[in-house]
Write a structure and sequence with these properties.
The structure is a homodimer of 209-residue chains.
Chain A (H helix, E strand, L loop, with lengths): L1 E4 L4 H13 L4 E4 L10 H6 L7 E3 L5 E3 L1 H11 L10 H29 L19 H23 L10 H13 L11 H11 L7
Parallel strand pairs in A: 1-2
Antiparallel strand pairs in A: 1-3, 3-4
Helix pairs in contact in A: 1-3, 1-6, 4-5, 4-6, 5-7
C-alpha cells in the first residue's frame, strides 16, 4: 500500500494518525497542494476529485476519502479497533465523525479557503476555479465556535468522543482542532473539557504523524 | 427501532430507501422542518445538531447521521448487503458515498438554502441563524454541474456507482439527483449514462420510500 499525502493538510493527517495507531508504515507519496500538484494530469488520473489522501492498494486500486481509506485499513489490520467494538460502537463512531466533518471541519475549511491568499480564485481542490466569498469567513467563524461549544459539552460527559474508547472520531476532532489554529482559533481557550481531551490525545505518539 | 423523519428532505429518504431494500419497517416519527420543529426543546434533547434522520434504537439510544444509521441497520440485518461484499467493496462504497456527499449533496444544498425564501436568515438546520449569501447560488450551480458530469463519466463505465453491486452509494446519488429538481436542475439532461442509471434505480420498489 502507499498513500498520496500532503503533510500540511488535515485530511491526510487523519490517515497518518490512523496508520500510526495501527502500527503500520506505508510509503508516503507527497502531493504539494500549495503548488497545485493535485491538478497535474498524472494525479487527476489517480483521483479526478483532486483531493488527498488517496490510498493505493497492493492491487493498484486507488481509494480516496479518509473514511473509506481508514475502514479499509481497519479490515486489513483489525487491532487495535478504532471503529468501536460492536455495531453500536461503530454507529457512535460514525455519528461523531460525521458531526465533526459536517459541523467542524467544513466550518474551519470555509474560513481558511475564503481568507487565505493561497486559495484566491480557487477555493476548492478540484480543477474548476471558484472565487473567494468574504462573507463565508465570518459565517465560518460563527459555525466553528458553535461546533467547539458542542464538543466541549460532549467531552465534559464522555472521556472520548464516541464513548469510553478512543476511535476514528477522536482523530477527526484532533485534526480539526489543530487545523483551526491556521485561522487563529484556539478551541481550547475557555473550554476546559476540550483542553483536557486535547492534552490527553496529543500525548499519544500517533499525534505526531 | 424508530426513525425521526421528514418526508420532504433528502437525508431521511436515504435511510427510508435503505430500510426498504432491507425489507424492514420501522415506526416513522415526523419532524416538520418547514415548521422548524427540529428546534423544539424536545427534539434538541434527541439531537442537538437539530438534523433528521435520527434512529432511536430499541435501547432508546439516538443515532444521527445517515451513514451511521445505515451501517447500524446493516449490522442488525446484514442481507442484502448494501456496503459491498468485502473490505474493498466497502471501501469503494464509502468512497463513492463520500464523493456524492461532499461534491454533490453539499452543492445542491448550498443552492437551495441560499435561494429559497423558506431558508432566509436560517440556512442551517441548527439553532443559530445564518443569513443567505446569494453568491452561493451561482457557486452551487457550478459545483452541481461539475459533480453531475463526474457521475456521468463514472456511470458510463460502471453499472452501479461503486462497481457491479447496488450499494448505499447509489442511494445517496439517487437522493441527490432527485433533490436537485428542487433547484430546477435535471441531472439526466444531456447525460445518457446517468439517465439510464436513474431509470433503472427508480424502478426499484424502494425508490418510492
Amino acid at each position: 500500500m502507499k498513500l498520496y499525502d500532503f503533510n500540511r493538510a488535515p485530511n491526510p493527517r487523519r490517515v497518518r494518525i490512523f496508520l500510526a495507531e495501527k502500527g503500520l508504515e506505508v510509503e508516503l507519496v507527497p502531493v504539494n497542494l500549495f503548488r497545485m500538484e493535485q491538478l497535474t494530469p498524472e494525479f487527476r488520473q489517480i483521483n479526478p476529485s483532486c483531493t488527498v489522501p488517496v490510498l493505493e492498494t497492493d492491487d493498484g486500486e486507488h481509494i480516496s476519502e479518509s473514511l473509506a481509506i481508514c475502514r479499509y485499513i481497519e479490515a486489513v489490520q483489525p487491532e487495535p479497533r478504532l471503529f468501536g467494538a460492536d455495531a453500536l460502537g461503530e454507529a457512535r463512531t460514525l455519528m461523531w465523525n460525521g458531526i465533526v466533518e459536517h459541523e467542524g471541519m467544513t466550518a474551519v475549511a470555509e474560513m481558511l479557503r475564503n481568507l487565505s491568499p493561497g486559495f484566491r480564485d480557487h477555493v476548492f481542490p478540484g480543477p474548476v476555479p471558484y472565487p473567494q466569498i468574504p462573507a463565508l469567513v465570518e459565517r465560518g467563524a460563527g459555525r466553528t465556535a458553535q461546533f467547539l461549544d458542542r464538543m466541549e459539552a460532549r467531552l465534559a460527559d464522555s472521556s472520548w468522543l464516541a464513548g469510553d474508547d478512543f476511535t476514528f472520531a477522536d482523530i477527526a476532532l484532533l485534526v480539526t482542532v489543530d487545523f483551526a489554529k491556521w485561522v487563529e482559533i484556539d478551541g481550547r481557550e475557555g473550554r476546559p473539557a476540550l483542553a483536557a481531551w486535547h492534552e490527553k490525545i496529543s500525548a499519544r505518539p500517533s499525534a505526531g504523524a
